[in-house]
Specification:
By secondary structure, the protein is α/β, with parallel strands linked by helices. It has 9 helices and 7 strands, in the order βαβαβαβαβααβαααβ. It starts with 6 loop residues before the first strand and ends in a 7-residue tail after the last strand. It binds nicotinamide-adenine-dinucleotide.
Amino acid sequence: MRLKDKISIVTGAASGIGMATSINFGRQGAIVIAADIDLEGAKRTAEKLEQEGSIGIPMKLDLSSLAEVKRFINQVLERFENVDILVNNAGRFSTLPILEMTEEEWDGVMDVNLKGTFFLCKEVLPNMIKQGYGKIVNLSSLAAKRGGVTSGINYAASKAGIFSITKCLAKFAAPYGINVNAVVPAFCDTNMFRSLPKEKIENAIKSIPLGRPARPEELADAILFLASDEASYITGEILDVNGGVLMD
Ligand SMILES: NC(=O)c1ccc[n+]([C@@H]2O[C@H](COP(=O)([O-])OP(=O)(O)OC[C@H]3O[C@@H](n4cnc5c(N)ncnc54)[C@H](O)[C@@H]3O)[C@@H](O)[C@H]2O)c1
C-alpha cells in the first residue's frame, strides 16, 4: 500500500476528480478526509470508501472563507495529530465572457481557486513542518497555460496563480521534507466538463490527440503518484495530464 495510514485531505471530494482521488487514496491505505462545500456529496464519497473497507471522513469546507478554512483545519487537527497529504482539488468554474465580467464573479472564482488553496496550505504547513513530512498536490488547468477558450478569464487567471503558489511553496517547504506539485488537466469527464455546451465539448474532444477526455481515475492516478513517496525527489513540478492536447 502506497499511502498506508497517511492522513490525507482531499478538497472537492464530493465529485469528479476529487471523488476518484479519495477512492484511490483509500485503496492505498490512506485515511481520507473528504472535504467539500457539498457535505451530502462528501458523505456519499465517504460511504463509498467505507464500502470498500477504507476510512473516509466527510467534512464540510467552504474554501471561499478564510474563517471557514481555519475552522476546518482546527476540526481536522482536533481529531488527528498530523496531516500528511493535502490535495487542493476543489474548483469553481466560470464561463463568463471577458466584457461581461463582474467584480462578484471575478472574486467568487479567485476566492475558491486561489485564495482558498493558498490559505488551506498556509494552515496545514505548520503541522507538516513540525513533523518534517508532507505532500501537497494542487489542481491547475490547461486554461492557465493556453488562455481560456471555453473558460472564463478569472478561472484561467486563478489557475495560472496555482503555478506560482506551487513553485513558491515548493521552495519554501523543501527544507522541511515537504513536496509541493501541481497537476494540470485539460478535459476530464466530470460535472465541470459536462457543464459546457455540447458543441464546445465536441470541439474539445476533436482537439485531443488521444481522442477522448480523461477519466477522473486517470487524474487520480497522477495525483496519487505525486502524493506518494515514489515522487520523493519531485517538487515544484507542473505535471500535464492532458491526452496530448498541449505538449510543452
Ligand atoms: N474536468 C475538467 O475538464 C478540468 C479541467 C481542468 C482543470 N480541472 C480542475 O480539476 C479540479 C476538479 O474538478 P472536477 O472536474 O472534478 O469538477 P467537479 O465540479 O466535479 O468538482 C469540483 C468540486 O469542488 C467543490 N467546490 C466548489 N466550490 C467549493 C468551495 N467553495 N469549497 C469547497 N469545495 C468546493 C464542488 O462542490 C465539487 O465537488 C478543479 O480544480 C478543476 O478546476 C478540471
